[in-house]
Amino acid sequence: xxxxxxxxxxxxxxxxxxxxxxxxxxxxxxxxxxxxxxxxxxxxxxxxxxxxxxxxxxxxxxxxxxxxxxxxxxxxxxxxxxxxxxxxxxxxxxxxxxxxxxxxxxxxxxxxxxxxxxxxxxxxxxxxxxxxxxxxxxxxxxxxxxxxxxxxxxxxxxxxxxxxxxxxxxxxxxxxxxxxxxxxxxxxxxxxxxxxxxxxxxxxxxxxxxxxxxxxxxxxxxxxxxxxxxxxxxxxxxxxxxxxxxxxxxxxxxxxxxxxxxxxxxxxxxxxxxxxxxxxxxxxxxxxxxxxxxxxxxxxx
Length: 301
Description:
Elements: H1 2-12, E1 25-29, E2 40-46, E3 49-57, E4 63-71, E5 76-85, E6 98-110, E7 115-119, E8 126-130, E9 144-151, E10 160-166, E11 168-170, E12 176-181, E13 187-192, E14 201-206, E15 212-221, E16 224-230, E17 238-246, H2 266-281
Antiparallel strand pairs: 1-2, 1-8, 2-3, 3-4, 5-6, 6-7, 7-8, 9-10, 9-17, 11-12, 12-13, 13-14, 14-15, 15-16, 16-17
Signal peptide: 1-19
Keywords: Signal
Region (Disordered): 274-301
């Protein structure tokens, strides 16, 4: 594993201390993620600046929100948890909020884009993680459109890009929860829950004889993943970036492209209906032989 991290750092020209940023979204204290009302916070990092918006409670049990912002350096952050008051409420007119002191200093250090540790005022350090409330390890959760892009340490000529749709449930390995495959069976993916690669998602690309010609192993968090790829698990040294382009329900995950219903005019619908009627009513030249079998014409090249 350490060798793969070294390769990634050397390829991309980044210092290892700056290899990732916390994934934008809702985060929780891992031990407090019990499905009941509690505290949590949103994180976003843009161009080296971290913004934290936290919801919690004061000593009387009343809800509070806090804001902290500042530079993220060496995968760590420390800043003041500011409090505010007198801002807008639902139905109010224009009101300008103002600072109302602070709750002290919050410190965070991250060991990946989805996991880290936080120290709140008057509390010991605790583990935090990106809050995943939409996906499980079930095979059906892999249904959708995926894009896998891998960068080879041996030059750009060996970089790979795979774009495919997983539509059909198939039998998986003994180490996962079942697999999803593309309709042409060129690709399959499964979430591994046991064995040496437990916790990773595995996607294979197959040759026409059924052998795997490309293996991809990655950590997935919501719609983004990172990992390693190569011809075999033992030679999976390419750095892999993964994007869930569309989810199980068919909705695209990006910021612009979305499936939109097409509104057709009555004239266009009528024209298409007539085309279907005409095509269905005309026999095709199947060139059946005397035994009722279809003859295949030789290709003219």
